[in-house]
Amino acid sequence: MTPDAKGAVCHPSPNHGDRRGGARPSLVVLHYTAMRSAEEALCRLCAPEFEVSAHYLIAEDGTVFQLVAEDRRAWHAGVSAWGPVTDVNSASIGIELCNPGDAPYAAPQMAALEALLADVLARHALPPEAVIAHSDCAPGRKIDPGPRFDWRRLALSGLSVWPEADCPPPAEDGLLRDLRAFGYTAEAAPEALLAAFRLRFRPGAEGPPGDEDRAMAADLARRFPVERRGVIA
């Protein structure tokens, strides 16, 4: 396998298949490994018996491993949905970050992720809003890449999105409508949608939804509606 991304180290996994229905990558899904080392994660992602994989794994020191070719369907998202997409594996590129889930992300790792994302988005002509969390497409089931991940940093680099500062709350309460317009699945329970949204955009927020939740969700729905982004089901 020749790496798609410049500088990536080939470490092929047998866990992949055809992208179904002629799907092409329209999303990039970020994960954490919930493991203590890149070596442990590589073993898991390349073991046939576990039936899991990702296109890329980024170690704490910034080493990028390519496990699955980008034109193949890696097995990283499980039961998940984003906007009209119900087979996220077929419509996405999966990137695993070596992190136990409760630790800050290492500086070399974040720098490598930014370089990889810039490359992937450019080659597939994807906008920043195509980069989502595993917790976004699997609300109530997954929480990675978790509250320690710096989404705002990616947005400042044009590699993800963030709500505008001090955006006013809408005149009426349309929080769930706006979350679904941004991309969160209509199939998830309202509390799961709120938790997933807060995990990414308001980590640590608790209690019933407030004006800040509504304002941020309305801004995301207005500027980045999923039906306008060419996301392929």
Would you state the CATH class of the largest domain? Alpha Beta
Full CATH superfamily name of the largest domain = Peptidoglycan recognition protein-like
Proportion of residues in extended strands: 5-15%
Strand order in the sheet with the most strands: 1-5-4-7-3-8
As a whole number of angstroms, the C-alpha radius of gyration is 17 Å
Number of strands: 8
Q: CATH fold name of the largest domain, please?
A: Lysozyme-like
Looking at the structure, what is the overall shape?
globular
Measured distance between first and last alpha carbons: 28 Å
Mean pLDDT: 95
Helix content: 25-40%
Order of helices and strands: EEEHEEEEHEHHHHH
Helix/strand-derived category reads alpha/beta
In terms of per-residue confidence, which ranges show pLDDT below 50 for 5 or more consecutive residues?
none
How can the largest sheet be summarized? 6 strands, mixed
- Contiguous helical run count: 7
Reported CATH architecture of the largest domain:
3-Layer(aba) Sandwich
Structural domains: how many:
2
